[in-house]
Amino acid sequence: MLKGLFNFYHYSPKQRRDLKEVASIMEEDLAHLGYIKQIFQREDLLVIDVSHELEAAVLKLCALKVDPTRGGSMADFNRLYKPTERMFGDVTLQGPCPSINFAEDPLLHDLIDGINNYIDKRFHNFYEPPLACFEAFDIGRWPSNREDLLLHGDDDVTTVFMHFASLFTEDEIAIGKEQFTDLKARVRDIGGNSMYRVYQHLLTIKPSNLNIIL
Length: 214
What we know:
The chain is an all-alpha fold and 214 residues long. A three-stranded antiparallel sheet has the order 1-2-3. The termini are far apart. It folds into two domains: 2-127; 131-210, no CATH class. It is built from nine helices and three strands, in the order ααααβββααααα.
């Protein structure tokens, strides 16, 4: 197989150019996949952060379809490649020097769409109950109005408790749902800290009135 690949690309300058183009595209895309790997390696990552971080990674990939020069290697390639002058940097090119428009390249679009589809399929559970219901604990989304805050997230918390019902008694579930209100009041008093620091603090001091909800 390796010998066949060598012959295919070695004896065809056009195929070699295509291979270099594919390699450049994949370098950009794989860099964003590396970013996803780094997401899950963060010590301060909360389950409620994952879907937002994944969406940011997908959007960055989509941005390469609109403006491929956002990627470092593609930007460098466009800067160095001068087809009308038959130059790549300070190297004089031999043979055909066609113009390259990555933004209209179907290969690039198909590759990015395939990666995004894989991400959506691989991590779909973060967008569905019960994991999606942990959004209720995202203090950045809590309403500032007391009346709105009172009911905010109650249905999601109920869904989480029902999913893990085998781990709690009926009384504990009822108390835990009540403690969600206590949690809101406690977090409002803390204020001014990152979400990770807030929950780190609460899990460290372990307030007795939040023993189930935490």
